[in-house]
């Protein structure tokens, strides 16, 4: 019995190479309506944006919250020059990438919970 026959009999479908891309695009589509809403109502998101913007414009680092997250704020600094939508887009792209990676990892392990993990 080869692996194709085994996967057909155990109820787990073989991995589809397009499913991670589809999952990532679905997550990206779900986040698209929020790209141009500024930093939303979360004060922490605004603090990160202001800290990154200050770092980009003045070269002075002020932590957005203590103890500080300088890696996040340094990465966000050049994006802050474009406005909050750029930070939202970066977050949406990373979320899509994470969803695709989770699905691919779960499918590689033969788990049926890949879609649930990807969208969680």
* DSSP E strands, number: 0
Sheet-strand content, in percent, reads under 5%
Helical content band: 55-70%
Cα separation of the termini: 35 Å
Overall mean pLDDT: 87
How many helices does DSSP assign? 6
Work out the radius of gyration: 19 Å
Query: Pairing-aware structural class of the strands and helices?
Result: mainly alpha
Q: pLDDT below 50 for ≥5 consecutive residues: which ranges?
A: none
Oligomer: single chain
Sketch the topology as an H/E string, one letter per element: HHHHHH
Net shape = elongated
- Major sheet: none
Give a quick set of tags describing it.
single chain, 120 residues, mainly alpha, 6 helices, 65% helix, elongated
Characterize the structure shown:
The chain has 120 residues and is mainly alpha-helical. Helices cover 65% and strands 0% of the residues. The protein has helices at residues 3-9, 19-31, 43-58, 70-80, 84-108, 114-119. Helix 2 packs antiparallel against helix 5 (84-108) and helix 3 (43-58) packs across helix 4.
